[in-house]
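Why this split exists: single-chain examples teach little about how molecules sit against one another. For that reason, every record in the complexes split bundles all components of an assembly together and asks for one structure covering all of them. Below is a record exactly as it appears in the raw files.
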Amino acid sequence: MSIGEFLFQMTEAIRQTPIVEFSLWVSDWPFAIWLQSHFLAIPGFQTLHILAIAVLFGSTLMLNLKVLGVSGKDQTLPQIFNRYQPWIKGGALVLITTGIILLISEPVRNMVNPIFWIKMGVLAVTIVVSLWFQAAVRGRMEQWDVSPGGQGSIKLGAVALIVLWMLVMVGGRWIAYAPV
Amino acid sequence: MANSIWASIEQSGLGTTIASNEWMFPTIETIHVFALVTVIGAIAIMDMRLLGLTSKGRSVKAVERDTVPVTWIGFAVALITGLLLFVSKATTYMANPYFLWKMGLMAVAGVNMAIFHRILSKGIDEWGKPGGSIPAAAKLSGALSLGIWLIIPFCGRVIGFTLGVYY
């Protein structure tokens, strides 16, 4: 089965669920109508969504490249962690908020769309890995430069998170190109 | 006719290949997104350090060492992918005011950066170290850069919504 066929089958399956009715109901919300009827509203919120991922991804790169020993060599891991961790959290908050607004702005196009659900699946995995990663870094960072024990899985997590966020971006871009 | 230059670019083998292929344009766009979020994220970290908003415990030079390589790699990828996207729709983009604004703003950002590196960055090695204050002109340059890079993705996004509006 080709990717196109798989996505088509997935769309057919979504059409059998109450998601269709729900998305139609959301499209009648006054806020949805307001977003639809103001030409710059959707690109405006999309821009905020992109700026939020820029903050999140840029901060993730700085933290994870430090973990991988590539950058931030004049700093300790706790210093880099404390510098970027709040921006990762803040970026994620703006990302989710604007994401919900964008979902409301075009409910049917988004929800009756296999790429959207694949993106949400990847996002869920990314959030879980991210929470584990942050807890793991926090637990190890004070001894980071003293003993190398337990760094392997954290370094692997650092690479995995960068790849996962890129996959989330792939999903975001391809929602507009889903064969529906 | 200036118009024929853009038309011949668009009708080139590369332009028609990208335009007629189902997955090429969105794939290049996706790589463009990877690149632009990297560029904006890294530039914002540097600009906010110049403005004294973040990384205050660290010298400007140290923050620059972390962000400049990331910025240049991201920018190179954004430029290459951006050119490929442009080639496939050159006439449409050249008629689009948001595209022209985007190019103009990037030019201003480039000039601002050149002035920063050639003139304003004298003594940068001491900035942000104990007793080393950041000159107002450098802060202004940072603020301008940050402002421009927040507007550029908006222009980019609106282009996608106005492709059918301008010819």
